[in-house]
Every structure is written in C-alpha cells, then in structure tokens.
Fold this sequence. Notes:
alpha+beta; Butyryl-Coa Dehydrogenase, subunit A, domain 1; Butyryl-CoA Dehydrogenase, subunit A, domain 2; Butyryl-CoA Dehydrogenase, subunit A, domain 3; 3 domains; four-stranded antiparallel sheet; three-stranded mixed sheet; 11 helices; 51% helix; 14% strand; Glutaryl-CoA dehydrogenase; transit peptide
Amino acid sequence: MDDLLRxxxxxxxxxxxxxxxxxxxxxxxxxxxxxxxxxxxTFPARALAPELGGLGLxxxxxxxxGCAGLDAxxxxxxxxxxxxxxxxxxxxxxxxxxxxxxxxxxYGSQEQKEQWLPRMASGEAIGCFGLxxxxxGSDPGGMRTTAKRDPSGDWVLNGSKMWITNGSIADVAxxxxxxxxxxxxxxxxxxxxxxxxxxxxxxxxxxASVTAALYFDDMRLPGDAxxxxxxxxxxxxxxxxxxxxxxxxxxxxxxxxxxxxxxxxARTRVQFDRPIGSFQLTQQKLAWMYVAVGQAQLTxxxxxxxxxxxxxxxxxxxxxxxxxxxAALDTARQARTILGGNGITLEYPVIRHMTxxxxxxxxxxxxxxxTLVLGEALTGLPAYR
Length: 385
C-alpha cells in the first residue's frame, strides 16, 4: 500500500532494517499459522522465543547483558510489525522486554541482571510481570499481595495476580507486593515452592497468547530477591510506561493490517458487476481508515523521537495509547464492514485483530484511565476517585 505521507522516509537506515527484518519474520513464521493458533487458543512461545531472541527483538531497547541497545523508534517499529502479525505476538515481546527485563535492568542488583537478562534476551528464559490482581486492576496501589520479612531475613509472599501474559510458561516473574516499606518488586523463579500458575481459557480475544493467574502461598524468597533500586508505585508504573510505548506503536500495525486487507478485498470483490472499491461509500470508508492509520503513525513517530531525546512524559504516552488504540479498533471495525460476512472468518485477519484490540483497549491502562490522565494534565485536577 502506498505511503502517501512518506512516513517511512523518516526512518533511518537502521530503523528500516529493523522494520524489514521483523516484517520478514512475521510473514514467514507467524502469518501462515496465526489463524490456527487463534482458533485453537495456543501460542508456541517456547519455539518462537529463541528465534525472536536471535533477531535481537527481546529487550531490544535495553543495553548490555546481550540486549541490542537500539533506539526507541526502532523498538516501536518492531512492535508495529509484530502486531501487524498479531497482538499476542507483540504482547509476548512487550512483556518479555518492557515488563520483565526492564525492571531487572533498571532496578535490579548486578547479580539479578547477570542471572536473568542474558538468558531472557536470547529467549532461553521467559518472563512475566505480576501486578494486576483480581480485585485491583486500574488501582494497583490497592493490591493485597503481601511480602513479609521473617526473622531469618527471608521474604514470605502471599496473594494472587490475574491476567498475566506468559504467566504459566514463565521461568521468572517480576512480582509486586505490599511490604512494611511500601510496594516492592521481587524477582521470583517460578520453580519456587509456593508459586503456582493457572492458565486462563475460554478467551475470545488474545487467543494466540498465554494468559494466567498467579498464586503465592507462603512462598519463601531469599532476602536478596527484592529489586533494590526502587520503592513504591514508581517501579511498576515506569514499567507500564515502557510497555505502553510499544502498544501505541503496535496498534498502528494491527490497524494497517486491517486496512490492507480491506483495500485488497475492495479491489477484488465484485457486486452489481463492479468491484466494491469503485463505490463511493466504500472509498469513503477506506479514505477515513487511511487517515486514521496515518495520524496514528505520525503520533507514534513523534513520541518515539521524544523518547529517544529523553523528553517523553507518561502523559504523552497516555495520549498515544488512548488515541492509537481507539483509532486501530475503529479501523478494524470499519474494515470488517467492507469484508461483510467474510470479515468474521479467520481466512482474513480482520476479526482476529478486532477482537484482540478489545483487550488492548483495556490492558495496561484502560481507555478511561488514560482519559483521566489527560484530563488531569489539562485541568490540574485529579478525577480518579
């Protein structure tokens, strides 16, 4: 599809290489199978992780410890191409790099970094991020999971987490818990006694993704399992900002895939002896979808450049997540109307992206929460309670 706004011209040679390499991987290894994965409710994480690691896509925006150390725009471009394949694929990479590796890289001890980051960057070890709880999603400060020090100096964790991507296949979990010293993060090997994970089934969205509930039953950890570099909600919220940045780029990929499918269908589907793309109403839909995708891409590129300049704020990331996911979901829904009945089959990517985006709209900050973030930025008045 033509790049009318010539946005791709703004990418550097290295960023284009990331784009092309990631796109080729998705085309060869994901698109031929993802419809079946979605229908079956499976995701071959163990098979894909080493390949993703070999391409340098796991923790790619981090430095040292086997990480690629690429810039924010490169990370965003990779997320865009991954989510053009499926939101579940981009979620896997986002959770691994931004939610599991990033807190260890940013706040962990040298021992924690050396133990986990090289293995996670290569795809040998898979990570997950335990923040959301059954009764505390948008209000993580109310979490009930606790970590208590006992006389030996060990930590004892009790509680549960919900909607955890990679939870039942992870080798390590970064778990956030209430302590006497505020909220702290813990690096938890998942073979620790007292840890258990139960995969969540019967999902109608993000089916090509592993989602689980985590349980901690008097789970004992050594004193040095805590992340030493952060206390309070700053820790998990900073991780979420990293992941939301990937989402605001990834949503562009899902939207673009839906638009491309709709354009191709409109060119070839004949009704009333004409391709439906020759009708004005269809062209109007396609034009507005193209505008939405272009605007979302410009937003992502601008925010990527701000991030590379070290000037991005959480409020700006909320703007991008709010605007781009909504644009992608609207585009997917409109594309579905162009495909008609064929739009609800897995022969085309549209319904898969559409249902996935319903989850993307909610996770890592609901649309309502990001709306209130912007509302507070505009008025100076918080309205969360």
